[in-house]
Specification:
alpha/beta, Rossmann fold, 2 domains, four-stranded parallel β-sheet, 17 helices
Length: 461
């Protein structure tokens, strides 16, 4: 008796998936993943991190950049380098691609790894400014042979300037023993939230942009290359009263931005000491009742001759609304947060004459070869955030050359004799983790050579 075996056809979904694989090439390029990841159990915070296998910056995704990331993900580093290079050819001002290209050049070889956490999803311009500084130092170090002949690898992270996400980032990085240090975070809110975790986990954090005074002395593993708000607010308060001769000032600030709350408090204390008076107006950029017209009207009615704007970095537009509402009737001053291209782009003539304190300006480093390289690399001028990120990355790299483990790195940076060469001033740290530095004052002035017709220029001494 003959038995016939009947074969069951695969379900239609199988043919559909095979067709998709053939059509897209996804099957060939997809890297093998642990079972936990294929089951959808990958930690969400890992999706915010990349060495080159994922593209985190959505804008400017060239076809070559996508191909480079796909090649990197399967370990085809030679192809990744080629594709990333092609992407940089068409979009040279892309720091994410330069970092990934540098990482691909290292491949699976021995390396030292640092992370950089920036607000890609919430403030892309600021994120890229910081990434440019990190990318440049990584490229320079690896091009010159590495740190004690070991190349530097950089993990890029998107923390969205969100304190809760920053805490998750910190928790994940502390557990990654191969990560030697963290450059970041951007906002003081994010740095303060993550700082306690880095401190407990004994992982060095060097922020290039967090200015809140609350960070001072918060932990022995926490550093910053930007001055705290006290050093930034005092020169501005003195200028307002002694040079601009404005003695009646209204204040608009963001109650949910710790660095600007800190700046506001330090400015007011210094302003009073120099003989000024603060006009009481309700002007909180974060309040549901915020009304720029009402705030300006109240300020003028109470005798204000000037106004201070201290917004959160992700809510600059509200400060511009107040500037527009003044219609030139009040002199405008601001916190360092306002020193961005977006401010010039959005504010234009409404902020003409705005004065802010800054940790750095290109004019300070005119003779520094690193600034010349930066201009060539990024096809234009760099910002203070890029400069402070250069110094933060350089500080970590120099310390890694002297000690390779986390504790040794921290002890090196804490050493009273420690000093590294910064883009303008030497990089040193006080016992509080702060950097002793001398801020300058910057003024918005007409400049026909720029795209928006205005530029930030140093005030004459």
């Amino acid at each position: 008796m003959t038995t016939t075996t009947t074969k069951k056809s695969p379900p239609p979904i199988v043919f559909l998936l095979i067709g998709l694989c053939i059509f897209t090439g996804y099957c060939a390029l997809r890297p093998s993943k642990p079972q936990s990841e294929t089951l959808g159990l990958e930690s969400p915070i890992e999706n915010r991190m990349s060495l080159g296998e994922k593209i985190l910056i959505p804008s400017g995704r060239t076809i070559e950049k996508k191909r480079g990331a796909a090649a990197f993900a399967i370990g085809d580093y030679k192809r990744a380098i080629k594709d990333f290079n092609m992407s940089l050819w068409s979009n040279a001002n892309d720091p994410e691609t330069l970092i990934y290209r540098s990482n691909a050049a290292i491949g699976s070889k021995q390396s030292k790894t640092i992370a950089v956490s920036v607000p890609i999803s919430s403030n892309l311009n600021v994120a890229q400014e910081i990434l440019r500084g990190v990318a440049q130092v990584q490229w320079e170090i690896n091009d010159s042979g590495g740190i004690n002949k070991i190349p530097l690898k950089v993990k890029v992270i998107d923390d969205q300037n969100d304190p809760a996400i920053a805490q998750q980032v910190a928790t994940a990085l502390v557990k990654k023993s191969h990560v030697s240090a963290v450059i970041g975070h951007n906002s003081s809110d994010a740095s303060l939230a993550a700082g306690a975790i880095y401190q407990k986990g004994k992982l060095v954090m060097v922020s290039p942009t967090s200015m809140a005074t609350e960070l001072s002395g918060l932990g022995s593993y926490l550093f910053r290359t930007v001055p705290n708000t006290r050093f930034l607010a005092d020169p501005l308060a003195k200028y307002v009263t002694k040079t601009a001769r404005k003695t009646q000032i209204a204040v608009c600030f963001d109650a949910q931005a710790k660095d600007n709350v800190s700046f506001k408090n330090e400015f007011i204390a210094s302003f009073w000491s120099h003989g000024g008076r603060v006009v009481d107006v309700a002007c909180d950029f974060n309040a549901p009742t915020f009304d720029p017209e009402v705030a300006v009207t109240q300020a003028i009615a109470q005798g204000a001759d000037s106004i201070l704007l201290a917004p959160h970095i992700d809510r600059l537009e509200r400060a511009m609304m107040v500037a527009r509402a003044t219609k030139g009737r009040l002199a405008i001053f601001g916190s360092t947060t306002l020193y961005t291209f977006k401010t010039l782009q959005s504010g234009a003539q409404d902020i003409n004459g705005l004065v802010v304190p800054a940790p750095w300006h290109p004019s300070i480093s005119a003779a520094n070869p690193r600034l010349s390289r930066a201009r060539q690399l990024w096809k234009g001028e760099i910002s203070w955030r890029t400069a402070m990120a250069i110094d933060a990355t350089q500080a970590v790299a120099d310390a890694l050359a002297r000690s390779s483990d986390r504790q040794g790195l921290q002890q090196t940076l804490r050493d009273n004799a420690y000093e590294a060469k910064g883009i303008a001033e030497p990089i040193q740290f006080l016992p509080t983790g702060d950097r002793p530095s001398t801020p300058i004052l910057i003024k918005v002035q007409p400049d026909s050579s720029t795209r928006v017709g205005y530029a930030f220029s140093p005030l004459d001494s």
